[in-house]
């Protein structure tokens, strides 16, 4: 009996996979739109090459290349500055304030701190040019427009005095928004 139930689930999973792949392969538009972009400078292009040559894609994904073993770096340029990324690549423990998993000397991926300064700078420039659209999962801020889902969650779960203490970041004036982004992205 147990094998029959397992077999039925297996058959349903295979049928579902075949149907999904058939629908996906016949779609004219991509199933998921990319919410990240890049506009590489000469330094950024060199950094992109160095990123791949240094085997960073063994753990990280950038521009839809690599693995998800480590942090996905698509859109990191929307959250971190060139200086922050460069400081991290040179001195990860000082930047984080705690030991990191693989980026220090003597560890498996210790080559980041052993790279020449020019290479570290170019990789940092490349990563800082990976931007995310506002509201994507990789962006620093939610979409600027009102969201019924976010508003209903705030109304349901936030304490009553929350709106008196905190300001909704979707309604910040533009001049404050620029300052808070700079402050948050500096090391």
N-C termini distance? 60 Å
Shape: extended
Fourth CATH level, the homologous superfamily of the domain at 36-132: Cytochrome c-like domain
The amount of beta strand, in percent, is 5-15%
Please give the radius of gyration in angstroms. Answer: 22 Å
Give structural notes:
This protein is mainly alpha-helical and 187 residues long. A hairpin with a 2-residue loop joins strand 2 and strand 3. Helix 2 crosses helix 6. The strands form two sheets. Strands 1-4 form a two-stranded antiparallel ribbon. It has a domain at 36-132: Cytochrome Bc1 Complex, Chain D, domain 2. The chain has nine helices and four strands.
What is the secondary structure topology, with strand pairs?
Blueprint: H1 2-25, E1 36-38, H2 42-53, E2 61-62, E3 65-66, H3 82-90, H4 92-96, H5 111-114, H6 117-128, E4 130-132, H7 148-157, H8 162-165, H9 174-185
Helix pairs in contact: 2-6, 3-6
What key phrases describe this protein's structure?
single chain; 187 residues; mainly alpha; Cytochrome Bc1 Complex, Chain D, domain 2; two-stranded antiparallel ribbon; 5% strand; extended; disordered C terminus
